[in-house]
Amino acid sequence: MRAVNGVRVFFTLICVGILGLAFIIMIDQISDPMLPELPFINVNSVMAALVVLVLVNLASFQTINGEKKKYLSDGKLLCSSCQGIVKEEQYQAHLTEELERSKWTSELKALTESDPVLRSVVQEWVLSNEGGEPGQPVVIDLRKAINLDKAGNYEGAAKIFEEHKLWSSAGKVREKNRVQMVKHVTVDMNQLIEQIGNKGLAVPYKCHNCGASITIDKNSSATGLKFCSYCGTAYNIEEMSKIVQEALAI
Asked: What gap in Å lies between CA 46 and CA 64, rounded to an integer?
């Protein structure tokens, strides 16, 4: 604060000197119009001095008030010795924060070294966040997503990954979910084909791409109903299973 006050006083004296000199010259010229004008004392220099005077004082007062607020206790400014104590406490708090950060860095390193899946996810987080280090709450979230993935809750895991902008991990998890659904539908189709055979039915189905017709009967297989044999387009297995279910009146 002393340095700020010193700068303020220095510029204030210069500006006041310019203004005072301008005032004296103005009085002298009023009393004696024949006096020569000084080139550096004019309207522009006076206005500049006023602006600098106002800005310097305003900035210094704001800086001083900001510093004072750091050392207020119950609305009263602390004494010099108390301010020293506060500064020391702030310094110690900073050291503690740095120590905690260093400790967490070591813990995170140990976690990622022992868990390759977490290491991969953390690396993606670092890339997505332009460097830096994920904090403990973030890592807790990421481990939760990994565990949800292991438990088969793919959508829950994907949402957590998305919250942390881990688009690649979210996409991989959702792909697992899609594959699982396809497998489930394939199993269902095998069961439906078996029922068609038992009832002696033949269910027609058209390819949406080329319009070619196929017949789903007891000789069909779920693996053979994945792609159109004419154009190679993948069939919509879910839609196909619904058509078969309607034919079976399920």
From this structure: 27
Answer whether 151's CB lies under 8 Å from 125's CB. Answer: no
Regarding pTM above 0.70, the answer is no
- Computed from CA positions of residues 42, 48, 51, 53, in that sequence, does the dihedral angle turn out positive or negative? negative
Could you tell me which residues are beta bridge partners of residue 99?
A: none
**pLDDT of the chain, 250 residues: tens digit per residue:** 556 556 666 767 676 666 666 666 666 555 555 545 555 555 566 677 677 777 777 776 667 666 655 555 555 555 566 667 767 878 888 888 889 989 999 999 999 999 999 999 999 999 988 878 899 999 999 999 999 988 888 889 999 999 999 999 998 888 877 765 555 455 577 778 888 888 888 888 888 888 888 888 888 877 777 788 788 888 777 778 787 777 777 5
> Domain limits of the chain?
2-69, 87-165, 186-247
